[in-house]
Amino acid sequence: MNNNFLQNPNETEKSEETDEQKKDDICEFGSVTVGSKLPIHCLSIIGQIEGHYILPSSNKTTKYEHVIPLLVAVEESENVKGLLVVLNTVGGDVEAGLAIAELIAGMEKPVVSLVLGGGHSIGVPLAVCADRSFIVPSATMTVHPVRMSGLVVGVPQTYSYFERMQDRIVKFVTDNSSVTETDFRKMLHNTAELATDIGTVLNGEEAVNSGLIDEIGNLSDAIKYLNHLIEKKEKDFGEQEINQKENTETD
Fold first, then answer.
1. CB atoms within 10 A of CB 118
2. In a domain, 10, yes or no
3. Strands (E), 51-207
4. Domain boundaries, position 185
5. Hey, what's the torsion of the CAs at 71, 77, 83, 88, to 10 degrees?
6. What are the backbone dihedrals phi and psi of residue 45, each rounded to the nearest 5 degrees, phi first?
7. In angstroms, rounded to a whole number, what is the distance separating the alpha carbons of residues 124 and 105?
8. What is the tens place of the pLDDT at every residue in 158-187?
9. Which residues are catalytic?
10. Is the pLDDT of residue 8 over 60?
11. How would you label 65-102 residue by residue, b for 16+ Cβ within 10 Å and e otherwise?
């Protein structure tokens, strides 16, 4: 028997609207809220991070003007208990990527990240900004210095700007992972690995051993850990409420 026959018309219509909304969210934003007991929001960061300039329509992009309000909505929603960030990105706009990473790092909701395929360039801060980061064994992360396309003025101020921007990235990554600044800068300035550039390519195991990523894992591992964080937070919140109630009664 079709389960819709067990629902009243209003419930059936509401269910259809919800399913349609989920399809729209996946197509438009690459994100969806799933689960019933412990609902989590899944956000995919794919292709190139698009910043202040619109990239060609042939590029797969993650638009920061979509992601930022979505993160605010997730943080404020009572119907979402945690956030799963799935990454397969080649990098992109540095300031847009850092803006998203800073927002995620500042969320009170539990957040877990999972690197699939690649977490390159500005994808590194986006991978490490979560409460716990996972990477599948076949994924890679490319660490390299800041690059700039377009007009570059050959004056000392330009190089100073590059250096300060690089320092911002280094500080964020080292503050949000176990890698040391010395080791991370060595990766950035490695000249022996990339044929036409400087930097380092790390596979899943190497990323974990370096301290960039917390552990090797797949989708089920990431979801299990996120559920663990959610349950722990709800337990701590419940104990906090009990203590506050007891203190109020005592006063």
1. 20
2. no
3. 61-63, 82-92, 111-119, 132-135, 140-143, 200-203
4. 31-250
5. -40
6. -110, 105
7. 13
8. 889 889 999 999 999 999 999 999 999 999
9. 121, 144
10. no
11. ebbeebbeebbeeeebbbbbbbbbbbbbbbebbbbbbe
Stated as kind and residue range, the H or E segment containing 161 is helix 156-175
Dmax (CA) for the chain in angstroms is 74
C-alpha dist (Å) from residue 241 to 145, 196, 203, 229 = 47, 58, 44, 18
Instruction: Return the higher-pLDDT residue of 199 and 15.
Output: 199
Total domains in the fold of the chain:
1
Whether residue 24 is contained in a domain is answered as: no
Copy the structure tokens of residue 102: 């800073």
What is the rounded distance in angstroms from the CA atom of residue 69 to the CA atom of residue 75?
10
What's 64's domain CATH number?
3.90.226.10
In a domain, 119, yes or no: yes
Q: Which residues pair with 142 in a beta bridge?
A: 201
Record the pTM.
0.83
According to DSSP, the β-strands at 111-119 and 200-203 are: unpaired
Percent of the chain at pLDDT exceeding 70: 82
- Looking at 30-93, list the stretches that DSSP marks H as alpha helix, in order from N- to C-terminal side: 64-76
Q: Is residue 228 part of a domain?
A: yes
Nearest to 98 by CA among 165, 163, 164: 165
For 190-193, the CB contacts below 8 A with 24+ separation are none
Give the span between the Cα atoms of 105 and 129, in whole angstroms: 5
Convert the pLDDT of each residue in 86-145 to its tens digit: 999 999 999 999 999 999 999 999 999 999 999 999 999 999 999 999 999 999 999 999
Q: Mapping DSSP to helix (H, G, I), strand (E, B) and coil, where does residue 50 land?
A: strand
